[in-house]
Amino acid sequence: MPMISAPAAARLAGRPLAFARDRLAALLAFHADDARLESQREAAPYAVVDGGIAIVPVLGPLVARNDWLSALFGAISYGDLVGAVAHAFADDAVRAVVLEVDSPGGEVAGLFDAVAALGDLKERSDKPLHAIANEAALSAAYALASTADRLTVTRTAEVGSIGVVAVHVDESGADKQAGLAWTYVFAGDRKIDGNEHEPLSDRARAAMQADVDRLHAELCALVAENRGTTPEAIRSTEAAIYRGELAVSAGLADGIGTLESVVAGLLAGLDRSESVIPRLTVPSTRRSLAMADQNTTKPKDPGQTDPVPTVPPQNPPSPEPVTPPAQTPAPALAPGSPAPPPLPPAHDPAERYRAEYAEIADVAAQGARLGVSVDAADAMRKGIKPDALRRTVLDTLAERSSAADVIAAAPAPGKPAAESPIVKRARERAAARS
């Protein structure tokens, strides 16, 4: 078996690596080809398939930065990967991003920052981020894949190996055979601990082990947070590798599929969302009557009359906080408002989304009449339920200290006039004081 090249040994020896063990052995046995060291791998590309799904490849070993090792082993740097994902999220032609992962892992250096950067990009974007292990997401590569909203594995894919390893190469025997004797002149008692020209001392081994243990704890905590589990659960895998269905059973993946099925599923979900949830913007009415209900639209039930422009109350006192009744999970914002329609059965997702959107739009319209701006489409994208949205509107009204912020909702034509409960309560309070 060819020996590892001197530059590769210098790069790998003594460094903590988040690498699958069998792949690491093959890496250490690789012989450097000097002709290949002169080329550099280009930044990680991404391809946009029909429908606006960007495929970002995460293929081969992962390194902290581009250098000769990138060209030698076909590696990808963390910086290039994060840059590719950032460009994909910013691309107007892209509706969702998929990480196609086939990697044994890589260096710990740069890994935690890369995972944090991917998580930040995902949080700041409204585009989904999915990942598929096709055919390996091991160690550092699994940590990257764990940032996705959903992680799919092929039937034969391997995931896991959530551990850290450091390698010490003892070349003292080879030095002796070559007639070489190394003498270090140094200051600092630990300066030459772990050098490759003498056996690893107990002190150097203990220091390396402590470093590996600390990094392993951080890796387990990071993956656990991304996957919604505990560090103890991740640690209990003992860096084992799981294939296909076993990965799903172990909680390290969300389902079995192929790259094509992941793309198709994303497209179906995006198309369904866009057809069920039309864009709706409710203008702010906090300070301007001209921006009240006249410009606000919402789904209209059969027989429902058009909303009437709102008018401010005369000399409104400061409102008191509005507290929903303890037994009422979804209090109405104004008297006389129609009750929200019940959600349809869960087996019909399209109908459920339509009903939920109609209910949220109703909350948005009522909120607008009370001077609270609500973006119904944004609420749907973020998964905010109607009950939570109602509580938010009520909390906003309760926190207002300026009477000019309170706008009463005028009753619809043909219905008994009813004063806003907020204004009514404030007037009663003012009357009691006088």
Structure characterization notes:
The relative contact order is 0.09. This protein has helices at 6-12, 21-28, 68-73, 78-90, 111-124, 140-145, 172-177, 202-227, 231-235, 245-249, 259-276, 349-369, 376-381, 386-399, 421-433, and strands spanning 16-19, 47-49, 53-59, 62-63, 76-77, 96-103, 105-107, 129-138, 150-153, 158-160, 165-166, 241-243, 255-256. The protein folds into two domains: 6-272, 2-enoyl-CoA Hydratase, Chain A, domain 1 (Alpha-Beta Complex); 279-433, no CATH class. Helix 4 packs parallel to helix 5 and helix 12 (349-369) packs parallel to helix 14. The model is unreliable at 1-7, 30-44, 276-338, 343-347 and 401-418 (pLDDT under 50). With 434 residues, the chain is of the alpha/beta class. It is built from 15 helices and 13 strands. The strands form three sheets. Strands 2, 3, 6, 8, 9, 10, 12 and 13 form an eight-stranded mixed beta sheet that branches. It has a three-stranded antiparallel beta sheet with strand order 7-1-11. A two-stranded parallel ribbon has the order 4-5. It is elongated, with a radius of gyration of 30 Å. It is 39% helix and 12% strand.
